[in-house]
Amino acid sequence: MSANYPLERDVFISYAHLDNEALTEADKGWVSVFDSALKKRLAQLLGRKPDVWRDENRLQGNDYFSDEIIAQFPKLKVLISIISPRYLESEWCRKELLGFYQAAQAKGGVRVGNKSRIFKVIKTPVPREQFPEEVQGLLGYEFFEKEADGHFREFRLDKESPTYYQFIERFEDVAQDLSQLIRKLDTAALTSVPTEITAVAANPPEKTVYLAVTTSDLSGDRDNIRRDLSERGYTVLPDQELPLDSRLRETVSGYLKRCKLAIHLVGGKYGLVPEDEERSLLEIQCQLSSDATLNRLIWMPPDPGNGDERQQRFLTDLQESAAREGSELLRSKLEDFKTVIVDTLEKLAAPAPSVVAGDSSTPRIYLMFDQSDRETVTAIDDYLYNKGFEVLLPVFEGNESDIREIHKENLRICDAVLIYYNQASEPWINFKMNDLRKAPGYGRSEPFLASAVYIAGEQNRFKERFRTREASLIKQFKQFTTQDLDEFISQIRRKKGGAA
Hints:
alpha/beta
């Protein structure tokens, strides 16, 4: 940032004066209340008196004073736009927004890391496509709730108002995000970083979380989680509004690639369906996180309510896919779910245990099979053990989450994998093949010495037609013979250096 124009002013509130008119003589204007509360809360968070200001003279038509405000923008850290229908119609509001945007662009950019220096506070709902270009993609702080009949209620800082506590929660989001950004800008100034505001280094994947956009009935719960994660130093994505057009899937997939954990909140509403899509935004995000083979946490409130047929179908599909993949699906209190999130993130960030594939002189083979094949696989299990291998087996009893963790650990530490397929269902083998592809995501750092699929039992068209290039294929529809595994064992021994 230029030495001639240090960012010495903290916050300017840009608003339409019509939005600050009191509805009764006893009321104070909405913007005045917001302004007063923000000064007090920022002082508490920053430990100093903040410089928060706004134009209180425009009702007198003081164009000169407004030009003086715009002249201050090169020294300004953050602009708050109080969005409303009147704001979009106001020439002066648009002039202020554009003036700050241009000044910020000239002073290193509008964004600092993943934060924008323009805060979009939406007092009254307006169509998304009507937002000014400068704030079009920014996440907004909505100070209202929509009802089923299309009506809405604005949040008010009035203890007699039914939306008082909702105002407090949303206001706290603004205050904390604002204080964090001001601190970053203050730090940049103290370290004398030349000419431009340097970008903040991106958090690593284990400190970056995809918190899926959810439906209106759970938006408050999502804000609660986002606030908690941000306070703990995590980057929460998406950090901009998702495009509801052909760019949606690519945008979400790009965010997911930066994360190790995706969190989905699912309630009784199906939610909006983006253009050119047949599924809701909620369902599309769930599908893409599943395709990305991420660790996933899915939460439903204890009583999500009865959704329409689309939502009922989605919930059924989601529960089935979560069970197949080992994703955790919880119905609990929100605070309990937040504890699960923190525990999961700590596990993802923890260094992997020292035991890795190849450490032991005795090669480990993970023998994967379905519970229905528990008896028929015994001969292969005994043979491999007698040949000097350590045979890791799946677990079928106990807590579902623990069973899945053991499965992941076996994939992480084994030297080779043998998938035995006999009586299991047809989708089962595809799920197991998918688990092989996911192994690097479980912490595995080296390729398998060998991987094979052993197809046995009653012959049918699916088994006859099954094929893959990702593993060796052994088909034995009669009785197991030791020769069936000769090539599999030889491959392990060659790559292991003659062990076993």
